[in-house]
Design a protein that fits this description.
single chain, 5% strand, two-stranded antiparallel sheet, two-stranded antiparallel ribbon, 190 residues, 10 helices
């Protein structure tokens, strides 16, 4: 969505309707709010981190926001435009379990090689723990990022090759209620 467009064209609306789970009126409302918060029509990394800080004031969400930003920024331009924003919002808030799992896999697969290593998962889990701070009381077997990652790998890495592929991730996610609960966190919010 170009910086000079304050209103979506009929073509853009039709495209967004077909690429998201939002109705025309909802798209227009989201666009109006997006432009109010981002008058340039784009959201940069610093602004994005600021949004996360508002939601997690007692922790440090900056690293996690960085990883989420990378998944939102589909074209890797260094900014999130309205289309990228709405498509990510559509998946996280109204997507099917399958779509959400694919999106979550992309989050953990930092180097985009189709596999999640323990190191990649530890970076994300550590960022999540830093973000929530002391707001969440964790069981002893998950009270550090390392313990949580070990537990996840024990559950998901079926062939014990030290990496998790998409099939293992999907199967393992269905077995871990915390993962499915996290994927459905935004359901019904928008």
């Amino acid at each position: 969505m170009g910086k000079s467009h304050s209103k979506l064209t009929a073509e853009q609306l039709t495209e967004l309707q077909s690429s998201t789970k939002f109705e025309r009126k909802e798209i227009q409302q989201w666009h109006k709010g997006f432009l109010k918060d981002c008058p340039t029509g784009e959201l940069n990394r610093t602004e994005f981190k600021g949004i996360y800080k508002q939601f997690f004031p007692f922790g440090d969400p900056s690293r996690f926001a960085d990883y989420i930003f990378e998944v939102f920024d589909r074209n890797h331009s260094g900014t999130i435009d309205f289309t990228e924003f709405l498509q990510a919002l559509s998946i996280t808030s109204r997507g099917s379990p399958e779509e959400k799992l694919k999106w979550a896999f992309e989050l953990y697969d930092i180097d985009r090689d189709g596999l999640i290593t323990k190191a990649e998962m530890l970076l994300i889990v550590d960022a999540i723990y830093r973000m929530v701070g002391s707001m969440v009381q964790l069981p002893e077997d998950e009270d550090t990022p390392e313990k949580r990652v070990d537990k996840i790998f024990h559950l998901m890495d079926k062939n014990k090759d030290g990496v998790i592929d998409m099939a293992e991730f999907k199967e393992g996610s269905h077995q871990d209620p915390l993962i499915m609960q996290a994927l459905n966190l935004y359901d019904g919010l928008v």
